[in-house]
Write a structure and sequence with these properties.
This protein is α+β, with helices and mostly antiparallel strands. It has helices at residues 2-18, 44-53, 76-89, 126-136, 173-187, and strands at residues 38-41, 63-70, 95-100, 103-108, 116-118, 148-154, 160-167.
Length: 191
């Protein structure tokens, strides 16, 4: 049961904090829509990722791309609404990073413009899809939210290409599952 798992994780984190094995929660809490931005310290992993992203030639090295070929009809308006809702629901999708004082902070913005980009897919089957994906993946400016983009393009045979690209500093392997499941629930009207 999901509630049991959530309580177990919360209890475990509380026990680790009480034992000094985990840091105290960041001040400020969650940034809700319409509130001011909230700043939080970076995790150790985020510090490393930020430093690696500043290395020459690393512009494309730390991306988490997802490409899905969708069979059958697709309601573009519902896809756009799902993308918008994802931006409202997930703080990571509204996060940017900046140097402040003598350190780095992550900023959770109350709102960002998470838009669905048009993707042009020419004729040519899988090669055309590969070319569209390569054009879609572009460097992110870590100081500008969102550090994620989504795109949609039609294929010649009536299928659709749905693309997603996120900077790894805000998105990891576990996030992929959560994101895709949430997107599908929103698109299907379950949420």
């Amino acid at each position: 049961d999901l509630d049991f798992l959530v309580r177990a994780v919360e209890d475990s984190v509380a026990d680790m904090r009480a034992a000094g094995a985990a840091p105290a929660p960041a001040a400020g809490g969650r940034a809700e829509r319409g509130e001011a931005s909230h700043e939080f310290p970076l995790t150790t992993a985020q510090h490393r990722m930020y430093a690696m992203c500043q290395s020459p030639g690393a512009e494309f090295a730390y991306h988490v791309p997802i490409a899905m070929v969708v069979e059958g009809p697709l309601d573009e308006a519902r896809v756009r609404e799902a993308v918008h809702q994802l931006g409202r629901r997930h703080e990571a999708l509204r996060t940017s990073f900046k140097l402040q004082g003598d350190g780095l902070v992550q900023i959770v913005h109350p709102e960002v413009n998470l838009a669905l980009e048009p993707v042009s897919v020419g004729p040519g089957g899988n090669d055309a899809i590969d070319d569209a994906i390569a054009r879609f993946i572009r460097p992110f400016d870590l100081g500008q939210a969102p550090l994620v983009r989504m795109g949609l393009g039609g294929l010649a045979d009536g299928r659709h290409l749905l693309l997603f690209d996120a900077q790894h500093i805000i998105f990891d392997g576990m996030s992929v599952t959560v994101f895709v499941e949430d997107f599908l629930r929103i698109y299907s009207g379950e949420v």
